[in-house]
């Protein structure tokens, strides 16, 4: 009897067993639906947040008109994945209303902004641009000043041979003034840039110069010759305006173009430097002085970077050491060919030789 009673159970006692089977499945399903709803809701919220906080599309007429210029310059028949330049600029040479028209339109808008009356915050970039533009447009004051401001600069630099009052024969002294006072680097560029290795601290970098004459391209021989004639005419007119003898002015202009062209032949394209593994070299100032002795590197760099305390053992980053060697030799040859060695070059070269001798004795 006891055994039979234990095996017989009322119907209501079997219900919890059935519930224990489907309840975990229902709970997992509800949890999955809840997580999916949370993800969907958060995605929608983030979408509206980024849409409201991020930059909006420009719907102004000038913005809508801008793609037309680019579409007119591109060739949509070209495959962008194989020849993106043709896809973006394939018609640039065929159309006259592409990038050039866009540049002209930007200039016109900028001019209207600068000429429109308005109040700018004192010392702001807008106010400086406005003042600079108005000073350039004040032609009456410019004509009254004449060549006086430019003559003053020339006198501060030691005069000009074609003007007849050349007083300075100190090549490095003039170079120091050009670099430090006028930010002009005729034979090389010197600037502060990050070191390629961590922690990327600023280091003085010496690179090829930005030449004043246009670069020669084989496919543009006729255009290049025409541009060079115009450039030579400009130099002749400028020298004559400053009171120079026309014959001397023409000789000086031709010499300037010839010297710059020879410097250009020493330059190597960036791709060639990269292929040769010579994108940059870290050298000390005294080592650079030894390799390119015509330039007084320490004094010129110290005058330019006045906030830094430089010494001969200071390291600098040189992007094309072969160019600096050839440039130094060319400048020295040109100076010697004109019958003088400007003050400072012999002292600089002697200093470089003494440093070389000192290092050789230290190695011994």
Name the descriptors.
364 residues; mainly alpha; Neutral endopeptidase, domain 2; 16 helices; extended; disordered N terminus; Peptidase_M13_dom_2; transmembrane helix; transmembrane
Describe it.
The protein has 364 residues and is mainly α. Among the domains are: 61-145, no CATH class; 163-208 and 267-363, Neutral endopeptidase, domain 2. Helices cover 60% and strands 5% of the residues. It has helices spanning 2-7, 15-53, 61-73, 84-89, 99-115, 125-137, 139-145, 148-156, 171-181, 221-241, 246-266, 270-275, 285-291, 297-304, 321-337, 345-363; strands at residues 189-194, 202-207, 281-284, 315-318. A hairpin with a 7-residue loop joins strand 1 and strand 2 (202-207). Helix 9 runs parallel beside helix 14 and helix 10 crosses helix 11. The chain is extended and about 110 Å long. The chain crosses the membrane at residues 29-50. Residues 80-333 form the Peptidase M13 N-terminal domain. InterPro entries: Peptidase_M13, Peptidase_M13_dom_2, Peptidase_M13_N. This is Peptidase M13 N-terminal domain-containing protein.
Q: Could you give me the name of the CATH homologous superfamily of the domain at 163-208 and 267-363? A: Neutral endopeptidase , domain2
**Second rung of CATH, namely the architecture of the domain at 163-208 and 267-363:** Orthogonal Bundle
Number of helices: 16
- Radius of gyration based on Cα positions: 36 Å
Helix content: 55-70%
User: Structural class of the secondary structure composition?
Assistant: mainly alpha
Protein name: Peptidase M13 N-terminal domain-containing protein
Domain Peptidase M13 N-terminal: 80-333
Transmembrane segments: 29-50
Pfam family, one: Peptidase_M13_N
